[in-house]
Amino acid sequence: MTDSFHQKLHHVAGGSLHADTAQSSGMRRVEAISGKTVGSQALWMGQTHVAASTASADHHHGESETAIYVVSGNPEFVFLDENGVETRHRTQPGDYVFVPPFVPHREENPDPDHEAVVVIARTTQEAIVVNLPDLSSARKET
Known about the structure:
Elements: E1 27-33, H1 35-38, E2 44-50, E3 54-55, E4 59-60, E5 66-72, E6 76-80, E7 86-90, E8 96-99, E9 105-109, E10 116-122, E11 130-131
Antiparallel strand pairs: 1-2, 2-10, 3-9, 4-11, 5-8, 5-10, 6-7, 6-9
């Protein structure tokens, strides 16, 4: 039996990411680190690709906190502020976005020629995605 100091590290090659994860229309999620891929206990990490001139479905990530790092493109993250007004964060490569648990949002890529790619980390070992009919549909379900 191995102790905590003698467990193996896992290497997940970029070309071996799995698309067998929860999806929202308008985007493609691929998973790298999860309970399924490496046996993680409290973390999910992967990439999201949003095609040119595309918006995702409105959705939330249940109990997961979500951290996003923008790798390429200029994706926009849309949510309703505390007054119910649609608000957007316009991002660029190198930016980070934090999405609290259960917050309805969507990703948009207004660029007509290039996809946007982001790296995502979540505080659950699997990707929770709850698609919604609109941003005002704040449902606490997973």
